[in-house]
Amino acid sequence: MVSYRYVIAFMIASLLMAGLSGCGLIREKRYQCIDDGFSISFPRDWRVTENAKGTRILADIPDAEGSSVIRQNVSVVVEEAHLPVDLKQYMDLQIDGLRKLKGVKIYEQGNAVINGAAAQWFSYSFTINDFGYKALVYTLRKERKFYVITGISQCNNYGRHVSRFHETAKSFKFEERASGG
Q: pTM for this structure?
């Protein structure tokens, strides 16, 4: 018969490992993903979900007026580089791919430094079934991973959200991963 002490110790160890391998709130409004080595801040009233719809973190913007047709949000996607491409090449591939799609328009592009790390950004819009969306995309690279932070909203709400999109992206920080294993 297995001792309950071992079962309890195993459960505690399992909970600690689960806490080390995911994302979580580390202080009010700041989420840290230890396994992917980053943290980012979101406004207190945004609903944050882990590993939703192909994202690492998805933060939904509340729709107080009830006027949004889509879920307006900011997401973080982490992608492992399988080919030797730098940040500029990665961004060029993203933009070139978008330009090939019908109804996509690229607006602005730029360079930034986010907490000491080089970043590039661009904004674009797209239309699906006569409905317009607009997005702001920031991309950073560390080692073999690209971190893509995207804020998306309906075109008619973009002006209201764009400064918050920039602010959220600029709150991104690379964090040291937990050692051990």
A: 0.82
The secondary structure of the chain in percent helix, strand, coil, rounded to multiples of 5, reads 25, 40, 30
Distance (Å, rounded) from C-alpha 114 to C-alpha 19? 26
Contact predicate 97/87, CB 8 Å: no
- How many angstroms separate the CA atoms of 75 and 54, rounded? 9
Domains and CATH numbers, the chain: 4-174 (3.40.1000.10)
Classify the C-alpha dihedral 72-78-41-95 as positive or negative.
negative
Question: What single-letter DSSP state applies at residue 46?
Answer: S
**What six digits make up the tokens of 55?**
């994202």
d(CA 120, CA 99) in angstroms, rounded, equals: 17
Which is it for strands 104-114 and 117-128: parallel, antiparallel or unpaired?
Answer: antiparallel
Identify whether the C-beta of residue 86 lies closer than 8 Å to the C-beta of residue 141.
yes
Q: What is the pLDDT of residue 19?
A: 35
82 or 106, greater pLDDT: 106
Q: How many residues does the chain have?
A: 181
Question: Look-up: residue for tokens 């997401």?
Answer: 75
62 φ, ψ to 5°? -60, 145
Between CA 72 and CA 95 the distance in angstroms is: 21
Phi, psi torsion values for 12, nearest 5 degrees: -65, -45
